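Board notes (copied after class):
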Amino acid sequence: MQATVVALVVVSAFFHLGWNLVIRGRSGSLLFVWWLTLFGGLVATALTLILRIPLQFGQVWPWLAGTIAFHALYFLGLSRSYKDGALAEVYSATRGGGVLGTTLLAGLLFHQRLPLLTLIGVVAVSLLIIVPALRGRQKPGVILWAALVALTIAVYSTVDSHGVRLLSPIPYIACQFLGVAAILAPWAWRDHSPVDKRLAVGAGMMSVVSYLLILYAYQRASAAPVVALRQIGIAVSPLAGWLLLKERVRRYTWWVSLGIALGSVLIVLG
């Protein structure tokens, strides 16, 4: 994997973990998620206008419609699963399932074939980050929502890996976030949780930067290894949940984190 792609994905992973910590800290408030997507979309729109990026929507509309729909399901499911699930376990279940799904879909739809070393790393990372969720004692509802989130990750990752080759990443993500905000609005405004809008702005900025970096990576590499390497944040999530959210972390989770790091090395070397 190219050094540029590795840098894009690793930086993205830590921004991604950051805004997930913020959402979990707000107990999965859907209204907070709505403000996050709205602010993120407005920032990306402003950048598009300031930089005068050409807008060529001719062939990209079906891909934008797909990513908006599945990202809306993603944020809805993520919000619901975080209400009762621990960060390390829910985050792991959704990302691990998403990596495996992306590998299958990208291979079937776009014939993206991976070198053997990379494939071993992708599968290893996927299985290792699902382990905490399988061993954790989560409520059935949390498991179902986490499974939905994993499915949406697989679909929108595959869609975006192609769609971003048809339109510049900045207007692409602007349409994505604003479209998601429009879809989530009817449900979000039923949530009367107090929202710190300054925190939502910060989380929105982290979310946009995180996924924008991934979109640039998709332009340079296959979807599956990009999505898998991004899960390096999983190795950090137990520590973050323990330090910042006072969540209990099981001993075996630290060994899983080490395994994820080793799998990530295989992806980079492949």
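Comment from the instructor: The chain has one domain: 3-269. The two ends are 6 Å apart (CA to CA).
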